[in-house]
Every structure is written in C-alpha cells, then in structure tokens.
Amino acid sequence: LGWKFYDADDYHSPENKKKMAEGIPLNDEDRIPWLCALHDTLRREDSSGQNAILACSALKKMYRRVLVSGASAIESNQPEQPGENTALKVLFVHLDGPINVIAGRLKKRKRHFMPPELLKSQFDTLEPPSAPENFITVSLEKSLPEIVLEIESAIFQG
After folding, report:
1. SS3 57
2. 9/1 Cα distance (integer angstroms)
3. What is the rounded CA–CA span in Å between residue 109 and residue 61?
4. What is the pLDDT of residues 51-72, one digit of tens each?
5. How high is the pLDDT of residue 105?
6. Spatial distance between the Cα atoms of 11 and 122, rounded to a whole number of angstroms
7. Residue boundaries of the structural domains of the chain
8. Class at the top of the CATH hierarchy for domain 4-157
9. pTM of the shown model
10. Cys-Cys link to 142, which of 33, 39, 124, 146 (CB 3.0-4.6 A)?
11. Neighbouring residues of 143: CB distance < 8 A, sequence distance ≥ 6
12. Which cellular component terms (GO) are annotated to the entry (predicted)?
C-alpha cells in the first residue's frame, strides 16, 4: 500500500517491557499511556495527510476508543462534540484464530520481550470488536495472501 507501518510493541515503555518479560500481564494503568502515544502517532500521520498501519493488540473496546479519540476517550463514553478534536478514521482488523495457532506463531518469534505464556492473559482480556466499531474480522487460519487481500478489499471498499 505504500503506507507507513508502526509496530505498537516499539512504543512500550521500558517498564512495560520488563513487566512482560517477567511474565506479568499488563493492566489498564500500564496500557493507557502507551495507547495515548500510539494515538498521537496516528494523529500526526493523519494531520499530514498520510495513511498508516498500526500493528497493535488493542484488546479492549476502551483501548480501541483511545486509539481513535485519544485520552478524552478515557474520561467519557460520550461522542465528541462539534469543534472538539475529531476522532480518527480507523479500520480495526481483528485477526482471529485459535489460541494454539497463535501460540505456535509466538514461539517462533526471536528476541521478543513478551513470552508466549502471556497469551492466555490476552485471550482472557480480549473484547472482540463489535458494532458500532469500524472493524473486520479475518481468520488467521487463511493463507497470508488471502489475509492481505481481505484487508486490502476492506480498506478500498470502506
């Protein structure tokens, strides 16, 4: 697509990385500053007219609201009022698959701070996207070319 790519893992604080490396799951308090920084990155790209892709485990609905609207999403579940900082247009791609498939992929990662043992905590935290969120769900059991084609189709149709 020629879009900038960001890996949200690169934006975790040293404290978050250390915590995960020790096998301790992150909580909301750990994640909110990280999500706000990611929102700021997406906002900067949007302001300059650039599209971007962010790989991020936005496990909860609230986390996805922070990515779209920033810190204001934490304080209120109300839609933004006219004249406020408008929400970003984001298509969330929920890559869905069985825990054993994802665990197998995690075990193949080298030199990553999050051990595969934390995967269950992520599944326990997961709130899959639902209406009215702007999202698609794509099966991880498809081939990589099929996954990419499905995502590209959703981007260009929506």
Report:
1. coil
2. 22
3. 27
4. 999 999 899 999 999 999 998 8
5. 79
6. 18
7. 4-157
8. alpha beta
9. 0.84
10. 146
11. none
12. cytoplasm
Q: Which amino acid is at 35?
A: L
Instruction: Give strand pairing partners of 7.
Output: 55
36 and 66 in contact (C-beta within 8 Å)?
yes
Q: Is 79 helix (H, G, I), strand (E, B) or coil?
A: coil
**CA proximity to 51, closest of 128, 146, 147, 151:** 151
Give 92-118 pLDDT, tens digit per residue.
Answer: 999 999 988 888 877 776 666 666 677
Asked if residue 23 lies in contact with residue 115, where contact means CB atoms within 8 angstroms, the answer is: yes
Q: Rounded mean pLDDT of the chain?
A: 87
Backbone φ, ψ for residue 3 (5° rounding): -90, 155
| 11 within 8 A of 34, measured Cβ to Cβ | yes
68 strand-pairing partners: none
Adjacent-strand bridge partners of 102: none
Helical axes 61-69 vs 28-47, angle rounded to 10° = 30
| 14-21 vs 28-47: helix crossing angle, rounded to 10 | 130
- Interatomic CA distance for residues 84 and 45, integer angstroms: 19
* Angle 66-15-25 from CA coordinates, rounded to 5°: 70
Examine the pLDDT at 17 and tell me if it is beyond 60: yes
- The single residue listed with the structure tokens 């790209």 is 45
pLDDT at residue 82, as a whole number = 41
